[in-house]
Protein 1
Amino acid sequence: MRTPPRVLIADDNAANLRIMRTRLTADGYEVVTAADGEEALAAARDATPDLILLDIMMPKVDGIEVCRRLKERQNPMFVPIILVTAMADAKDIVAGLEAGADEYLTKPVDHAALAARVRSMLRIKALHDTVAAQADEIARWNTTLEKRVAEQVAELERVSRLKRFFSPQLADAIVAGGAEDPLRPHRREISVVFLDLRGFTAFAETSEPEEVSAVLEAYHAEVGRLILEHEGTLERFTGDGMMIFFNDPVPVANPEERALRMADAMRARIRVLGAEWRRRGYDLDLGMGIAKGYATIGAIGFEGRRDYAAIGSVTNLAFRLCAEASPGQILVSQRIYAAVPDLVDAKEVGPLQLKGFHRPIVAYEVVHLKHVGA
């Protein structure tokens, strides 16, 4: 509400109009006047008063009809109306209140009563305006909150999608803007690890589905924990086979070392699981291959179904080394071994004639790591 408040007085009696205007002006109010009902409607629209004093008996449109029309207008602001009647006619008062009037005065208007009614109605308007403003603010907060919730849900969905491929730390960094969009194709040098369970095909052919499911569940739980622990990116997941790579989507320190430490930890853990499996009659063990090289990495697939993939000869080399590995064996490429010669005790294997490679490949079998600490 403005200061000073604006009051509209509508009365066809010039003397009454002059008296009320003088009194209210003296009390500090801004006063607007109208001489009949039509003028009152126009002034209420154009002057936007904070309070209206309406004489009931007016030409053209009487005060009760003016009151009814004003209350029917879709005005978001509350404007109290005081009806002024020449006599305390109960019918006029009831009709005025039913039309939407908030208070009434009788003529001749007593100055003290006029001042008290105006102050009371303006106080009610101020309270109403405060509540309306607070309601609007709450509505804006709710709209903002809904938007923030929608953004957070979208962010959680994006994080969830990214965590299918990346460690939680990397997924969070990507969403927070700590990494470029990883789904856009890009070229980077990575260390690739392939692994699968030796003897799994024969085991699956002769075992009940529940037994196969239980073995896979234990196997996935163990290797999955180690992938996340070493911040690897799971690219491929096919039953007992997996492909993990390091140094993408966010570059990491010593990707070759991470790959080797993860593979060594997996071998140690699967040896423990393998002992339990052998007690149950399952002949299963882990074979792994690790290679280093450049690949093109990004999203592949079609609308509605996309995967994150690395494409290049390095992935084929890691896969072929994995296929060549015996149960419990880790085979690494020459580039991997050359990158961390002080980390591993290894012995040369081959040269190997691997499918898809024209020249024989020199590889190394990792016997054990010289430094166990991460």
Protein 2
Amino acid sequence: MEVDNEALLEMTWRSPSNIALVKYWGKHGRQLPSNPSISFTLSRAFTETTVLFTPRRDSATPIVKSFLFEGKTNQAFARRIETFLQQITDKLPFLQQLQLDISSVNSFPHSAGIASSASAMSALALCLVEGRQRLKGDSFDLEDTINEVSEFARLGSGSASRSVVAPIGIWGAHPDIPGSSDRYAISFPFELHSSFDNWKDSILLVSDEVKAVSSSAGHQLMKNHPFARTRFKQARANIRRITVAMQQGDIGAFGTIVEEEALTLHGLMMNSRPSFMLLLPETVRIIQSLRRWRRQADVPVYFTLDAGPNVHLLYPSTHADRVLQWMEKELPEYLQSDKIVRDEVGMGPVKV
């Protein structure tokens, strides 16, 4: 990024994506969740964002002076970020006096079935909150501001709220989760069983096409969904069940819930009005193959899906060799460097 001579401040944050275990689907108000969700924070799938703060000469000019994604101008992203920034000037009024040059790069393919909006908006939120502190002459401590950072990330993308915390994020108020909130995500507030240390996430890229329906549109369809009330009740129950399983080390119960949630998410899409289907034949083939092998080999590896056709395989790192051997035998086409993202549970954002 070319630095302006009048630049006040420049900073870079790297923030990871996350994979939801219990899914958030449906929202209300100002980007508030209709049900709580829980996720693994990833490690190698991240967005690195640099923000250059310069004085704004004219209040009529956009806040976003320039936006580069992967080194290229991207007007669609720039408009989305401009809208986001305009919407949060009531919470961050210092933005009204500034223009921002923003440069963003992903460590993963943009259409890889990884929540790029989660990593991108959380990285931007980190830059904004630290930028405000630095311009005021104050120090910045992520631990002290993490709820605020998560809240600003949420306003840009709901799932981004969870990318700020690690290794497990919970977003959405739940009576059994102390400190939980609809406004921001919190880290897993219980003692995590050692069975859930060092988990892997192998992401199989079935398709790199742009989704037929955006996640934002899908969330909106939950407002009149015939099964909305039942779904929200199910999600709250699954949050309760999965947090207990993760404290007790019950990997089987954990896997059952994770796969149920993945299929429920896509079932809700297929039962929306209008309905839509994002699963592809290859998605189903991978799931069926995995289930057959799991029964035969008794290996704790489970699938989940985001709002797309690509498959996330979750498993303890102690079983990584056996999972790789199975993929080499059953899914060789997904071992190409551009067909699989090998990730793992990580420890959250990093200042660059």
Protein 3
Amino acid sequence: MKAALITGQRTMEFVEFPEPAATAGKAVVKVDSCGICGTDLHGFLSKDPYNPAICGHEFSGTVSAVASDVRHVKEGDRVVCGVSAACGRCPDCVAGRTSYCSYAFLNALGRDPLAPPHGAFAPAIAVDALRLIKTNPSLSTNQASIVEPATVAYHAVMRTLPRPDEVVLVQGCGPIGLLTLQVAQAAGAGRVVAIEPNELRRTKALEVGADEAITPEAARERFGSKGADLVFECAGVPPTIQVAVDLVRRGGRVNLVGLASGAATISPQSWLVKEVTFVASLAYNHHDFIETMNLMADGRIAVDPLHDKTVGLSDLPETIARLADDPSSAIKVLVDPAR
């Protein structure tokens, strides 16, 4: 079986692997669809090695085999892949910090003992069965493949819940930003303003529910002195981290959601003077997936407008190169390994 892997800077290759097997603790999933993540694009452009286990991690599929010790999923179940529930045994769990379970964290990083040798840019994959969550039956295959990034957004908003009287800014309208603004709306934010330099993405932000969508220049003019109550930084580039603090009011909150490569220059004085509360949000917890799928099923998170197109596995190297060079050319591209 061939799986597509990023093997070097700007290099994606098809690598031969044995057919995945349901060894102890694992389930084999026939991949129905897998999204291309911004993390994949970062890995494609980076000179650093990219962990093969997470090269294609936004996937949905159907269980085709399970190990004899697996009970919670069975052959034929539609599933999405996230992280396991808290193990209850690691030092963090024993200390009562189950949201920071070490085993689940290793799942998210693709470093757990059962981590696969490749991601879901492949016809099938064998993973730790505890990472699999049954797909909400109301969701289509394509929708299910966007559950993972939607859960990133859900987890972030739950970390800094907006109030009905608050103005919330979402900085950056890629997939995570567009999902975050919808979750913020669903969570009861008073007004959600999207900030995005690209006109097409501003239009998309309005389509999925933003009250306004403005340019970074307009944001600085409007919020540079008065400040918003809460800023979700979803752009994922180093300069926008300080910009997020510049746009928040004194005593306001900034939530770092986007993953920026490299170091960022900040102005500590502005952080101090504003007494800003700065929160970081990484990935998700197991239970976040159920809540996210419920919001998607009842329409409060709309993912269909984010799906630009689906490509076949053979088209993936060319597609990922094009997206890396022009990330604004699409919001979410899915890969169908059966094509």
